[in-house]
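Researcher: Please translate sequence to structure tokens.
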Amino acid sequence: MFSSKLPAVASRAFTSSSAVKAKVAVLGAAGGIGQPLSLLCKLSPYVTELSCYDVVGTPGVAADISHVPTASKTQGSLPDPEAGAWPTGSEGGLKAALTGASVVVIPAGVPRKPGMTRDDLFNTNASIVQTLVEGCAEHCPDAVLAIISNPVNSTVPIAAEVLKAKGVFDPKKVCGVTTLDVCRANTFMGEHMGVDPSSLSVPVIGGHAGITILPLLSQTGASMTDEEREALTVRIQFGGDEVVQAKAGAGSATLSMAYAGYVFTENVLKALAGEKDIVMPAYVKSSITSAEYFASPCRFGVNGVEEVLGYGELNEYEQGWFDKMLPELEGQIQKGKDFAQK
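Model: Translation complete:
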């Protein structure tokens, strides 16, 4: 079962060994998600080279992170190859950031503010993702893409359409990161059950926005009233709003998203290195529902997503949410495809 625990940082943060040789590129590395995500990647024994890319600030971010005593090398690039890079005198630009990458994590984009939905970010973030994925198609077409930029329900289809147009689309290697939904489900259910949330693995399916997020609480075996089930479901679905409101205009979920993005990235690296039984949720091209893209448990292997798994039985309550969620998700998928194809 997938766990949202982060064993690498807890037990191996300051070791000097490296399990595999893998370059991870973080696009949007100077942002609120990108900086802590890059730091966590620097701590991973599965990362040999960490490449930080953003439109501003990345040489400084890379220089700062490079002082953390782990075996991985750190490089920071700006879009203009002549604008400076870290280490000083090294080549910059998107090509340098991406060439040789095994995994590309994309948290780039603008954050939500109070009153905004993920879909309100569409025009700005859609263009950013389109441009960055065009770079991936040219410079690292075989990399696994881990897309965090919202709205994920639309940006993953945008990425796929860009790669199709370039002739390099591989559905095994284009993933939307929905790990944070599982982290929230585990945390909130742990509070409800009075247990350590790291011992839980609550299935969450669908998409990554509002009612398209469907936690399958019936599969946990926990007892709850109808009112408790409703409250937990809605809190998981709109957990991001909780953070946006609490930050009062200063941003959205950045630290928890960085954690979740790192958990996803390290598990992908483990699978690419040949470790077995790596199963975790991801928003991917799927045929298990009528939606072309859908988040469900996936088995990862040396080629990326080896198998898209089913999600088991739904109870009557969950089926009601599922029936409401699917047309909403399909509309957001089509919106992304229309943007990329225009």
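Researcher: Any highlights?
Model: The CA atoms of residues 102 and 111 lie 26 Å apart.
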